[in-house]
Amino acid sequence: MHYNLIPHLTEMMKCCTVACFFLQLIIPTFLFGQSIDKHKDIVDGEAFDYYVMQPKLEVSGILLLLPGTGEKPKTIFDRTSLPEIMVKKGFIIVVPELRNSLFANQRTINRLNKICKTISQKNNLSNLVIGGFSSGGAIAIGYAEHLLSIDTKNVLKGVFAIDPPLDLTRLYASSERKINYECQGLIKKEGYSIKRQLEKSLGGVT
């Protein structure tokens, strides 16, 4: 009785290929990845978290990365390679907890001011770059405008935003359309969430 080993060998080769692929993804991060430290602070009587990736080289500046609505801060480090790229250039990467902010209101500005002051004083830095994703991008632009209005030392060196909802009237209309969709689940829930946040912050949009 002959036993055909070819199908089994082929399957084993496939498994080995998949295993090697995942090892290539895991090993560099494990061996060479930077550590991410969690910090806590309090502003206006409210506690919040932020995450910091510290470069091993000489520090040259701060990159403040702002997540989108409902996104956990630490997921930014997995979502994009930007932190790894910039930390190798000497930037401290800071990702704060925003708690569903859609724009740079005073509470959010106060938090970001406290974080930037803490990191800057600790590392004797004056170079700041701000960026954000989705609503975090809108906050990044709003906070940059705030800094430029009071900045006399040219601390802010750059700002970028990826897919930011800058038109709040349009965002409000979009949330109402999502609520009126026939489908249930996340889309309708997101519509209600955005509408409530805007109405709470701005008293609605007219």
Walk me through this protein's architecture:
The chain has helices at residues 6-32, 76-79, 82-87, 106-123, 135-150, 168-180, 186-202; strands at residues 36-43, 46-53, 61-66, 91-96, 128-133, 156-162. With 206 residues, it is an alpha/beta fold. The protein has two domains: 35-166, Rossmann fold; 168-206, no CATH class. The chain has a six-stranded mixed sheet. Helix 6 runs antiparallel to helix 7. The radius of gyration is 22 Å and the shape is globular.
Give the distance, in angstroms, between the N- and C-terminal Cα atoms.
Answer: 82 Å
Topology as a string of helices (H) and strands (E): HEEEHHEHEHEHH
- Low-confidence residue ranges: 1-32
Shape: globular
Architecture of the largest domain, according to CATH? 3-Layer(aba) Sandwich
Secondary structure tally: strands: 6
Query: How does the major sheet shape up?
Result: 6 strands, mixed
Strands side by side in the biggest sheet: 1-2-4-3-5-6
What's the alpha carbon Rg, rounded to whole Å?
22 Å
SSE-based structural type? alpha/beta
**What's the CATH topology name of the largest domain?**
Rossmann fold
Rounded average pLDDT: 77
Share in β-strands: 15-25%
The CATH superfamily of the largest domain turns out to be Alpha/Beta hydrolase fold, catalytic domain
Topology summary:
Blueprint: H1 6-32, E1 36-43, E2 46-53, E3 61-66, H2 76-79, H3 82-87, E4 91-96, H4 106-123, E5 128-133, H5 135-150, E6 156-162, H6 168-180, H7 186-202
Parallel strand pairs: 3-4, 3-5, 5-6
Antiparallel strand pairs: 1-2, 2-4
Helix pairs in contact: 6-7
